[in-house]
Amino acid sequence: MSANKGWWVPPEGEDSVSEKFLRKTRESPLVPIGLGGCLVVAAYRIYRLKARGSTKMSIHLIHTRVAAQACAVGAIMLGAVYTMYRDYIKRATQDAGEK
């Protein structure tokens, strides 16, 4: 039996969950931003659920889903634009500066 009851310990050489999350966040910082945007939209729409008026519940949920997906897709697009900038434009200016 292990000494630490109920806690999973990764094998040596592997990162813990928090270390892996921080490493992935440094590699692509817009993913947590997109996830946060989805959560903010969902929380706001749940808060506004009482004041939806005569709108059907299904329409309210569809609008919530579309808004949350728009945050996620927007973060993905910003990440793609940043990666293209970093890989092509920034590298081309550094190569031109070295010549």
TrEMBL record:
<keyword id="KW-0812">Transmembrane</keyword>
<keyword id="KW-1133">Transmembrane helix</keyword>
<dbReference type="GO" id="GO:0031966">
    <property type="term" value="C:mitochondrial membrane"/>
</dbReference>
<dbReference type="GO" id="GO:0097250">
    <property type="term" value="P:mitochondrial respirasome assembly"/>
</dbReference>
<feature type="transmembrane region" description="Helical">
    <location>
        <begin position="67"/>
        <end position="85"/>
    </location>
</feature>
<dbReference type="InterPro" id="IPR007667">
    <property type="entry name" value="Hypoxia_induced_domain"/>
</dbReference>
<keyword id="KW-0472">Membrane</keyword>
<feature type="transmembrane region" description="Helical">
    <location>
        <begin position="30"/>
        <end position="47"/>
    </location>
</feature>
<protein>
    <submittedName>
        <fullName>HIG1 hypoxia inducible domain family member 1B</fullName>
    </submittedName>
</protein>
<dbReference type="Pfam" id="PF04588">
    <property type="entry name" value="HIG_1_N"/>
</dbReference>
<feature type="domain" description="HIG1">
    <location>
        <begin position="2"/>
        <end position="94"/>
    </location>
</feature>
<dbReference type="InterPro" id="IPR050355">
    <property type="entry name" value="RCF1"/>
</dbReference>
